[in-house]
Amino acid sequence: MPQASPRDTYLQVSESLRQKIEKEEITEALPSQAKLISDYKVSRSTIERALGHLKSEGIVESVQGAGWYVAGSGDRRPLVERVTDLLGAEGVKVGDPFPTEKELCARFGASRTAVRSAVAQMEGQGLIGKGEARGRQVRALPAGRGGQTA
Fold first, then answer.
1. Which of 70, 89, 114 is at the close of a domain?
2. How many domains, the chain?
3. pTM for the full predicted model
């Protein structure tokens, strides 16, 4: 970010994000707050203020547990529901390996904290669990897929 008064930094960040949205460099989900902090080299409060500013203008919207989106785009369901949908994919069966946290972060554009929360909820429901060696594996399929268990 170019040097500016700390009071105006959030406006520069929000303007940069607005331009990326207008140029369709960002079309659905915005990067995670952690990624924005890293990219813009600013504090979390500056990012939150910039996102709040864009939200007040109707350019972006937030969905608890899912992140920030360009207004009127993207899947608004909580992350745990979207991750659980992976178990409903064609060919997934009990005992299959489950994607890593890193893979889930990249796939859903979510923070590691959000992914860990979704994975913990799925473990609590008995859908996934610790696999042999490292990683997780599918333990059961969601209702509607036969509800098989290992």
1. 70
2. 2
3. 0.55
